[in-house]
Structure formats: structure tokens, C-alpha cells
Design brief:
Helix content: 25-40%
Number of helices: 7
Structural class: alpha+beta
Order of helices and strands: HHEEEEHEHHHEEH
Distance between the termini: 61 Å
Number of strands: 7
Strand content: 5-15%
Number of domains: 2
Shape: elongated
Strand order of the largest sheet: 5-7-6
Length: about 220
């Protein structure tokens, strides 16, 4: 009798594990693909044969591009064709270390030198600090606004056109409650380059920006 009770419990436990590890996973995955196919697929967009993910922060540093959060890039990883692959992640440096302080000062100087019209105005913290993942694709609206005049100079668009473009790709709080408003850096840059709709009259038809003709760079596959 005792053996049957133990066996019954083992069978019930095995059934629960099967449901939780297999059936549950299949159901959730299927529901996600049916309800949120874009997000489940990695939020991938393909433009002119290049593939981008709106979920990955990338190291933009051209004057005609919106800059995101700092990214620690490692190019020691190679593809099967022996080409270097961009890999990024958190630096894991402690704020208490001298190296972290030196990096912060270097970033502050770089941002301030690129935005002389903002002299005396505090630099938004997300322009000089990495995110926990090292791949945050968003910056705050304040960080985007800080760059408006530089973007206007570099692209030839007006400040209002740049602001309208930023506003088009500013996301609100999740479910109206969670998090803070945020700007998707990749989408803004693709729009400024004429690859996505923008608030700039000269690029609304898909042309490149008037002065640079540049194309946004990204992790492409």
C-alpha cells in the first residue's frame, strides 16, 4: 500500500512537471506568436536588405545621429568567416573605482565638447552612463532634447523638424503606468537618414538627409 502511494505521488509529480515545462512553454510561445508576432521575433525590421533590431542599443557617434547610452564594445569575437563581430555588454565596473570615474569624466568632456551651445546645462545622466544590460536601445526625452541643436547643424534640418522626428519615436509608459517615456535611438536615426518616416520635410519621401546622405549603421545580420 505504501509503495502504491509513493508511486501515485511520483506519477502526479511527473505529470505536473510535464505540464509546467512542456505544455506551458508551448502554450505561452504559441500565444505570444499569435498576439505579438513582431515582439516575439525580436522586434526585427529590415530596410534595404539590412536587418535591425529595435531592442538593441548600438554605438552611434556620428554628428548627424542621435547618440544613445554608452556601449562597451568587444570586437574579439569572430564569425565563421573570420570577420569581427560587434558584441556589447555591461562593463561591470564599480562606481567606487578610479577607472569608472575617469571614464565618466572622459564621456562628460566628449558630450560637452560636441554640444557647446549647452554650456552650463547639466548633461543628462543616460548620455554618460551605461545601462545594466549594456544594450539599452532607449534614452530619455531630456537626453534627446539635449542633442537637438547638434542634430540640426549636422543634418541641415530645423530644430523643430528634429524635435518632431524625436517625438514620433518617443514611447510612453508601458500600459500607461510602468516606466518612463523613452526615445528609441535606432528609429530616430533611421528616420533622420530617410529610411523611416520622419518629421523632416526633406526626408519624408525616403530620401537621405540633405547634407550627409548617410545611412544608419547597426548590428546587421
Amino acid at each position: 500500500m505504501h509503495t502504491l502511494a509513493v508511486l501515485r505521488r511520483a506519477v502526479v509529480f511527473l505529470a505536473l512537471l510535464t505540464i509546467l515545462t512542456c505544455a506551458y512553454t508551448v502554450i505561452v510561445t504559441a500565444a505570444g506568436k499569435a498576439l505579438f508576432p513582431f515582439q516575439v521575433g525580436g522586434s526585427i525590421i529590415t530596410i534595404n536588405g539590412k536587418t535591425y533590431s529595435t531592442l538593441l542599443g548600438q554605438p552611434f557617434n556620428a554628428p548627424n545621429h542621435l547618440w544613445g547610452r554608452p556601449v562597451s564594445v568587444d570586437v574579439s569575437t569572430y564569425s565563421a568567416n573570420h570577420k569581427p563581430l560587434l558584441y556589447a555588454g555591461p562593463s561591470n565596473k564599480s562606481p567606487a573605482t578610479a577607472e569608472y570615474a575617469a571614464n565618466l569624466r572622459t564621456r562628460l568632456d566628449h558630450v560637452r565638447n560636441a554640444h557647446p551651445e549647452k554650456a552650463g546645462i547639466p548633461v543628462p545622466v543616460d548620455l554618460v552612463t551605461e545601462s545594466a544590460s549594456g544594450l539599452d536601445p532607449h534614452i530619455s526625452p531630456a537626453a534627446a532634447e539635449y542633442q537637438v541643436e547638434r542634430l540640426a547643424r549636422a543634418t541641415g534640418f530645423t530644430r523643430d523638424e528634429v524635435r518632431r522626428t524625436i517625438a514620433m519615436y518617443t514611447e510612453g509608459r508601458t500600459l500607461g503606468l510602468l516606466g518612463e517615456p523613452r526615445v528609441n535611438v535606432l528609429k530616430v536615426n533611421l528616420a533622420l537618414d530617410g529610411l523611416l518616416p520622419s518629421g523632416c520635410a526633406a526626408s519624408g519621401d525616403g530620401d537621405t538627409s540633405p547634407q550627409t546622405g548617410a545611412r544608419a549603421t547597426a548590428f546587421a545580420r
